[in-house]
Structure formats: C-alpha cells, structure tokens
Amino acid sequence: MFGKHFELNEQTMHIVKAIGRMMPGGFFIYRANETEELLYANAAVISIFGCKDISEFKELTGYTFRGMVHPYDKAAVSGSIIERIKKNEDNFDCVEYLIIRKDGGIRWVDDYGHYTETEAYGGIYYVFISDITKKHEQQELEKRLAFQEKLIEEQNQREQQDKMITALASDYRSVYHIDLDLNDGVCYRADPEDKEQTAEGVPFPYYESFKWYAEHSVDENYRDGFLEFIDPDNIRKALSENIIIDGRSALKMLEVQYTKHEPYNLVLLDWKMPEMDGIECAEEIRKLFRKETTIIILTSFNWDEIMDKAMHIGVDSFLAKPLFASDVISEFERIARKNNMLMLRERKRADLNGKHILLVCWNERSSCETV
Fold first, then answer.
1. Exposed, middle or buried, 342 (CB in 10 Å: 0-12/13-18/19+)?
2. CA nearest 120: which of 28, 37, 12, 42?
3. What is the pLDDT of residues 140-185, one digit of tens each?
4. pTM (2 d.p.)
5. Residues with Cβ < 8 Å from 228, sequence gap 6 or more?
6. Is there a contact between 289 and 258 (Cβ–Cβ < 8 Å)?
7. Backbone angles phi, psi at 83, to 5 degrees
8. 184, 205 in Cβ contact below 8 A?
9. Burial tier of 146 (Cβ tally within 10 Å: 0-12, 13-18, 19+)
10. What does the alpha-carbon distance between residue 99 and residue 127 come to, in Å, rounded to a whole number?
C-alpha cells in the first residue's frame, strides 16, 4: 500500500499518521494476531463510531479490531478475512459487517484490507472502511420490493388461474383471456356453433380480430355498438370509472354521487385494503349515506371471523373472489327480495340496469370482472 520498500515501525508511524489525517475515509491498522490490537485509527474512523476523540473510541472498542465489529458478526468476519487473504495473491480482502456506535446506533461498513508482514509488528492489516448503511438499506429495500412484486405477481397469476377455471366450469359459450396493453388474446373455450371463432389456445391480435368479427358476423344494426364496446380505450375507461382501490377513495366517490343526487345503489368492497379495510369503510358508509345502498364484502379469505361485526354495522352480504357479474346479479337479487316482501311474494326479479355500482378492489385487476 505504501510501496514495496516501506516498512512500518515506530520511526515511520508518523508518516502513516500524516497520510491518515489527509484521507477522506476511515483508515486504521491492526495486528494480525489473537489480540487484534489497533496500532492506529484516523479521525474518520473515530467519527464513524460516533466518538468525539480517540479516548472515547478506545473506551468503546478496547482499541481492538475485534471490539470494533458487532458481536453478531465477529466470528464470521474474522474467518472471512483469513479465507479471502489465502485466496488472493496480493493479500487483499473485502468484507461487510455491522458496528455499534457510541450512541447505540447500528451501522453497516465495508472493509477493504491488505495484509503484510513487518519486522516491528509482525503480521498487520491496513484497512479502509466507510459507512455504507444507506447503500445497504437501499439494497435491502430493493430486495424487499422485488420479493413483494414477485408475491403480487404470483398472487395475481393464481387469481387469474382461479378466474379462468371458474369461467371454464360455467356455462359460458365462449371464454377468452385478453391483455389490452399487449393487444393479445387467447380463446380458452370456443363456441362450437360459431365457425368464425378463433381456435382454442392460439394467440391472436385482440382488437383486429374482434373488429374483423364485427364487420363480418355482427348484424349492421348492432355493429356500431359492438365496435364501441370492444374498443380498448372504452374498456379501460369503463374499468377505471367505477373501480377504485381503497376505502377512503370510495367514501369520496360516494360523497360526490350523493351531492349529485345519484347515489350508488350497490357498493362492492374488498375486505383487505390499505389504510381502511372493507368493514371499516362499510361502517362509515352506513353512518354517512342512505340505508338503501346495498353493501357486499368481497374476499378470497374465510369471512366467519368478521361476519357478526359486518352484519351488525349493516353489511348485506359476502361474495367470494374471483368475482363475476353473474354472481353479483344473483346476490343483489337475493338481497333485494329479502328486503322487499312485495318483490318476494310476486317473485319479481331485481334489475341492475341503470343502477349505479361502485367496485372497490385492492390490487385485483386480474380477479374483478366489470359489472
């Protein structure tokens, strides 16, 4: 580090100290023996440990390398340094470990060391250290975010698979999976009576294929309406207008519709949401708005633990996810009949046409069908 002909001893130590004072980062020297006694530590090292001067630093660490390392890391760090020195022809090592500052704070440092032999002190390590806590925290945050994204992706995939299985198990004549962003489509169940339909399992360009179908197979009296219905921008708009992702936003939308004298007839609330869950949101809705609004809680979990509280605050029913329009219509009809004896006696059907519906889902774009 100081050149091939430099020899550390009592006479040259003042040179090391002079250089150490000029260094922007932490620099120290310690014996490569059982004591691991420090021979020198510059002001930057003392500052990293939160000490005012060398006396506080010595009191905190015992003035040994062993005393500088967090107890949790001591054994692993010593072993790692020795192993790396053995594998490196130039006797360099690089490790990261935890330290405990004078104020009790725990920090991460990286350690770049060089081992050399001296006549005066025997084997010694020259070491540069720097505080990398922010860098380490950022790396950990990125790892956690990546892990969370992976979990969300896996959850979305499972829910999408559940939804597709449910659809395939239903009596729908055709079942498609459409990705609007990629303009990709796949037919999972083809209508056997429709000779123009795309083959099952074969990817196809969504909008172009449905547009061709409209031009060749849809009656001209209904063609414009069909083309408007399949337009990707119209679908996105319909999904975004009445589907939101948290309870507080739901309350704001309810207030807006209430002041316009167009209150929601049906509110579908996801149980698990950030800040305000579905039960808390339902309780606020019953306090602030009309009683005629039907409230249904959506969940993929067992709702037994919340059923009593939910019914007490005025929740009308529960629905399991993945959610389909047919499920919503059937449940809304059942609730309407229960609350309207005339409808029950005359066996009238509840009608959602023209009704205002609010769907509140958290991270459920793949498991909520537009209703």
1. exposed
2. 12
3. 888 888 887 887 777 767 766 666 666 565 566 778 888 888 999 8
4. 0.41
5. 234
6. yes
7. -65, -45
8. yes
9. exposed
10. 15
DSSP state of 218: S
What does the block give as tokens for 349? 């059907």
Tens of pLDDT, residue by residue over 347-368, are 554 555 666 777 776 654 433 4
Structure tokens at 245: 């992702």
Measured on CA atoms in the order 320, 321, 327, 333, is the torsion positive or negative? positive
Percent of the chain with pLDDT over 90: 18
Burial of 163 per CB tally in 10 Å (0-12, 13-18, 19+): buried
- Across the range 108-134, mean pLDDT stands at 89
Match 């172009």 to its residue by tokens.
208
Asked whether residue 244 carries a pLDDT value surpassing 70, the answer given is: no
* CB atoms near residue 82 (< 10 Å): 13
Strand ordering across the sheet containing 243-244: 243-244, 357-360, 266-270, 294-299, 317-320
Residue 4 makes CB contacts below 8 A (sequence gap 6+) with: none
- Residue 336 CB neighbours (<10 A): 20
H or E element in which residue 355 lies: none
- Three-state SS at 64: strand
Q: Can you list the alpha helix ranges (DSSP code H) found in 23-72?
A: 43-48, 54-61, 65-68
For 149, how many CA atoms within 13 A lie in the half-sphere containing its CB? Answer: 6
Nearest CA-CA partner of 326 in 278, 369, 358, 295:
369
User: How far apart (Å, rounded) are the C-alpha atoms in residues 294 and 329?
Assistant: 12
